[in-house]
Design a protein that fits this description.
Layout (H helix, E strand, L loop, with lengths): L20 H9 L25 H18 L3 H14 L4 H13 L3 H14 L4 H17 L3 H13 L3 H10 L1 H17 L4 H11 L11
Helix pairs in contact: 2-3, 3-4, 4-5, 4-6, 5-6, 6-7, 7-8
């Protein structure tokens, strides 16, 4: 959600922790992301992070929360109209495009969602908290569309802005990392006696495949 407080490195959840409203809404708006997705200290900082909340910004956030509630109640057409009105009022505010893209995703309209995310990234000033959401969401869409390399780059960027989940996804999509992991696994298996040759020999022994020697004449 774009109305939560500026992100801080998130502490691990402890037993009995009750997720805050923002986590619940983020889980609804981002079904492809883990509940209460973790953040970490960002390497990149958006230029708008230090901007003070004005009365106008507070008013926009209040209307944004109302639109989010509509989406939570599955009133998607009403939510879409509400976010479109917010964008009309402030067309340079990236959060509006990110939120509307999430509603488009909930409606199954991936093309419209992608257009909003592209516009937010290319035309709007991104704060750290919005940037990590926008790039991660676009990465999910690109992966769904089969653009693995594009998804990996967007996940990497979201990770640099502090989205730990996106950084993890970027590593998973890195072919070199996958190759290194495979080679490491093979090396560990070999050292632990689980190399293919050792496994084959063990299986042969377990099956009782013994040869009987013939006495020489």
């Amino acid at each position: 959600m774009t109305d939560k407080a500026d992100q801080q490195p998130q502490q691990q959840q402890v037993e009995g922790h009750v997720p805050c409203e923002e986590d619940v809404l983020e889980a609804i708006f981002n079904p492809n992301m883990p509940f209460g997705s973790a953040t970490q200290e960002p390497e990149l900082h958006g230029p708008a992070d230090a901007k003070e909340d004005t009365e106008e910004e507070k008013r926009m956030r209040e209307k944004e929360r109302a639109a989010i509630k509509l989406a939570e109640d599955q009133k998607l057409d009403e939510a879409l109209a509400a976010f479109s009105e917010l964008i009309k009022e402030n067309p340079s505010r990236a959060a509006g495009y990110n939120d509307r893209a999430q509603v488009y995703q909930m409606k199954g309209d991936k093309d419209s969602a992608m257009k909003d995310l592209d516009y937010a990234i290319e035309k709007c000033e991104l704060s750290t908290k919005v940037a990590q959401q926008v790039y991660a969401q676009r990465g999910v869409l690109k992966r769904l569309n089969g653009d693995t390399e594009g998804a990996r780059k967007d996940f990497e960027t979201a990770g640099m802005y502090g989205n730990a989940w996106a950084r993890h996804e970027a590593v998973k999509l890195n072919p070199y990392a996958a190759l290194c992991n495979q080679m490491l696994k093979q090396a560990v298996d070999k050292l632990s006696g689980k190399a293919p040759e050792a496994q084959a020999a063990a299986t042969k022994g377990q099956n009782g495949d013994h040869t009987t020697s013939t006495p020489s004449s």
